[in-house]
Amino acid sequence: MKRIGIVVTNLAGSGAEKVALAQAKLFEDNNFSVVLFILDNVKKYKTSEYNFPIIPLSKGKDVYKILGKAGDRIYAKILKSKMEKIGKFDLIISNLPRADRVVKYLDHENKYFVIHMSYKTELEKFTKKRAKKKLQVYQWLYKNEKLITVAKSIIPELDVLNIDYLEAKTIYNPFDFESIVEKGKEVLDMAEPYMIAPSAFRRQKRYDILFEALRQTKTQVKLIILAAKTKEAQAMIQAYGLENRVEILGFQQNPYKYMKHAKLLVLSSEREGLPTVMIESLILGTPVVSTDCPTGPKEILVGALSHWLVPVNDSAALAKKIDEALESSIEIDMNELERFSKASIFEQYVKLLKEQ
To answer: How far is residue 45's CA from residue 38's CA, in Å, rounded to a whole number?
Structure first.
């Protein structure tokens, strides 16, 4: 039986961490032996539904990060030791730069690094000095390595950044349509209509743009946010005078019931990789309005759905499109979503094993 090792920073609740769980579940469902390794033992996602082992490399939070490359080598030594006790791994898949820095030191002939975001857009937001330092890290990290990008548009960006990878291919994130639809059926006790923004409250999500757009909309439909109730978030809501129109519900183990019953999902990000929430929303039949980030959304909202893309950081355009979407009957072609199905994605991952 082939054995697969999945590595990710932790399971604290981000989209990439959710993808790592989906990768592991994909292999488990197809009778592969799979182990998920996390650097720090932080878990917000419910893991009891998974049968594969989840092995932390530390007892709590990331204790070695402050040591830089020396800390990365310590983690790599721990990871290698735990892997050797289990047996031979035929494929290793690493998710997120923090985990990549550790896997970089593993001497394994078939390891892949999954690029979940637009590094080019990220670097453009830094000061020149910080961007140069960060770019040097990426250039070192992925030099002569095999990469998987979650969106096709990420590959030319890596070339622009002069990242000298060995090979790069796109494999979309896997989605279990049946499970998502089933979880979406859970009863939800919310009578009034609402829109949803199920993204973490981080700068690149540009909630300031979304809140400014809400102030400009004609509609009074409420916005539900599935993110942590931070002081920063509450302060921003108050600053825009939206206390009666925006509600933060916190992290939810089952976000699908909220997506299913929403009138609309709105994404206001300035950068993404392949935003999973957009695909999940469409699977549940809920329309999406999104900013047209350099990578990601335009590969999801294709054909007629591309009409619901708006320029990044344009609150007026976003407001106008939200109003239009709420008044429209938007048809979602499920056949267009098949390229994100777990069956389609599994075939592509299996090829990685055959190419050894």
So the answer is: 13
CB 68 within 8 A of CB 62: no
Helix, strand, coil percentages for the chain (3-state, nearest 5)? 45, 15, 40
| Residues written for the chain | 356
Q: Using N-to-C axis directions, what is the helix angle for 177-184 and 276-283, rounded to 10°? A: 70
Whole-model pTM: value is 0.86
Beta strands across the sheet bearing 309-310: 246-248, 222-225, 194-197, 264-267, 288-291, 309-310
Model confidence pLDDT, tens digit, residues 38-48: 998 888 777 87
308 falls in which pLDDT band (50, 70, 90)? very high
Contact 36, 55 (CB under 8 A): yes
Contact 6, 12 (CB under 8 A): no
Q: Which two tokens stand for residue 352?
A: 């990685």
Rg (CA), the chain: 20
Structure confidence by residue, pLDDT tens digits, 179-192: 999 999 998 888 79
Report in angstroms the alpha-carbon separations of 307 from 71, 194, 331. Answer: 47, 21, 12
